[in-house]
Design a protein that fits this description.
GO terms for molecular function: kinase activity. The protein is of the alpha/beta class. It has helices spanning 8-20, 40-53, 70-73, 81-86, 91-102, 160-166, 175-185; strands at 2-5, 28-34, 58-62, 109-110, 115-116, 121-122, 128-129, 135-140, 152-157, 193-196, 204-208. Helix 1 crosses helix 2.
Length: 210
Amino acid sequence: MRAEPVTVDALARDLADRAATLALGHPARVAVDGAPTAGTADLAEATVAVLRDAGLFVLHVPADGFLRAASLRLERGRTNPDAYYEDWLDLRGLTREVLGPAGPGGGGRVLPSLWDPRTDRATRAGYVQVPAHGVVVVSGVFLLGAGLKFDLAVHLMQSDAALARRVDPTLAWTLPAFERYRSEVMPEYQADVVVRADDPRHPARVVEVG
């Protein structure tokens, strides 16, 4: 892979420009995929800010607002990496409440969050009407290769060493899940934009994959 250094601000501007010019006839569905240690949420928020400054309607939907209930996601234990990879994200809920409504013929009525994993209860969030020229940015882990429909996807990749170095020690048990994701999905080949984010403060855009 060949990568070129880029600032977070420049990367956000590029993603915003790409999303704003898709002209799909429905809201652009943008995935910002990567581990929390890669600066995924920060890049999503920076992209949202650029789009808002440009006068576009944009909605940020963190995927952790669509986790499954504790009784389901923790059925195999609280620190099971396979369950973290396979069972935590509510793919059907995210499709039903966000990606489907924002997609072709969906009407644009999007639910920003469904479930609060801290309280293990529904968030009771209100629906948001996203106009056809608007943008929905979904950020989180394991978003690619699972059948979720996006119109633009960016993947923030980290080496095993960088991920292990930056992960919260209490979440070190999740590392095998990211290894599975890399080996089974190969998200760098699923994304439209790939970014090396071993140090999320100094990303590098991949200009040649392979």
